[in-house]
């Protein structure tokens, strides 16, 4: 399959790998299944309305989460905290709704960099990265500076 998007993160950061249902709509999560995988390795598994992590690859233990409040609206994105060099891989988001018996897949490439070894200045620790789902190689949107910019613009507007 072809890549749907490429994301970038530095070691230690939090990254969100995008995956949404198409077409978007209300999902019934009780019988819904969602797999996040690297090859055959299970990164995160959700079934019957809850996480099912007993077969999760040990490298991802306690570092992955889904947006449970947004899943029923089609947001199946995966959040990975404390990104490691080992996380640099091609991820597959696989979801299946029993009603339509269709399995849908999305492929996301995560490129992980060591901020010490790159020429770009390291970003502040704990900064979140979110990727947009376009077919081209796109940099992730850093949330911290954006929220700061919005706050500054709101303050100026109130003057």
Automatic annotation (TrEMBL):
SMART domains reported for this sequence: IG
Biased segments, Low complexity type: 121-132
PROSITE patterns (UniProt xref): IG_LIKE
Location in or out of the cell: Membrane
Gene3D superfamilies according to UniProt: Immunoglobulins
Residue ranges occupied by any Ig-like domain in the UniProt entry: 12-111
Record bears the keyword Signal: yes
UniProt cross-references to InterPro entries, sorted A to Z: Ig-like_dom, Ig-like_dom_sf, Ig-like_fold, Ig_sub, Ig_V-set, IgSF_BTN/MOG
GO MF, one example: signaling receptor binding
Region (Disordered) location: 104-132
Family annotation (Pfam families): V-set (PF07686)
Keywords: Disulfide bond, Glycoprotein, Immunoglobulin domain, Membrane, Signal
Main localization of the protein described in the UniProt heading: membrane
GO BP of this protein: regulation of cytokine production; regulation of leukocyte cell-cell adhesion; regulation of T cell activation; T cell receptor signaling pathway
Recorded superkingdom: Eukaryota
GO CC list: external side of plasma membrane
PANTHER family reported for this sequence: BUTYROPHILIN (PTHR24100), SELECTION AND UPKEEP OF INTRAEPITHELIAL T-CELLS PROTEIN 10-RELATED (PTHR24100:SF148)
Protein name per UniProt: MOG protein
